[in-house]
Predict the structure of Probable membrane transporter protein.
Amino acid sequence: MLALSVLIPLLTAGALAGFLAGLFGIGGGLLIVPIVLWLLETQHLGGMHIQHLAIGTSFAVMVCTTFSGALAHARRRSVRWDIVCRMAPTMVGGALLGSLLAARIPAHYLQLFFIAFVCAIALQMLCRYRPQTGRHLPGTVGICLSGGVIGLLSSWVGIGGGTLSVPFMLRGNVPVHQAIGTSGALAWPMALSGAVGYLLAGWHVTGLPSGSLGYCYLPAAAVLALSTLCLAPVGVKIAHRLPDSALQRAFGLYLLIIAAHMLWKVHPHF
């Protein structure tokens, strides 16, 4: 049973993560992982497995969050299912491949490259960049390959695929509301594959807290999932009320926050 002193921060963080997931078509892990880490540290749980538990719990929560957000976007007919069907399998495959290759590549250089890349995209969006009128998304092979690269990069730096899939679709002149709705639908299989992977990876691990299922701490996952489920549809509703230009600038600001957060993690005294 979680104490009231930790329930309120969990509910608040979950609500904000759910709102952002619906608004931008993302998973919300940027907020969920730190709050689960805080919970485990304050309760003296997890020990040497604390980071794996935080990420596994975050993926479990995102399964619920992204499903709720994707459903809300689908009801508003803002999901391009033709893109989802082509990108989802390779995004999941890329994420799985990335998890296998990550140990062989220096994380420091990967993170610095990703920060610079995300900053460039964010500045383009904040400056109201418009792709050429005749530009379109690539064909099936190009979309599948792009999905694999997005999944690969996302797994290396520990974020959801929406951070890259939305700008990719915008460059192909997909309307911003459709790009975000489609990204929300793509986030669900990514979250599901991550949750299953961490559940299986921690299945036979000893020393996990009571109430854990693999690397998922169920008490925290249940509270966070409840609050994210309530707020994800609200984020979707607001996204569809915002003009295209305002939503694009808001997403650009979100990308800058992600880049700043990652830079702080890489260089805390920067």
Notes: The chain has ten helices and no strands. The mean pLDDT is 82.
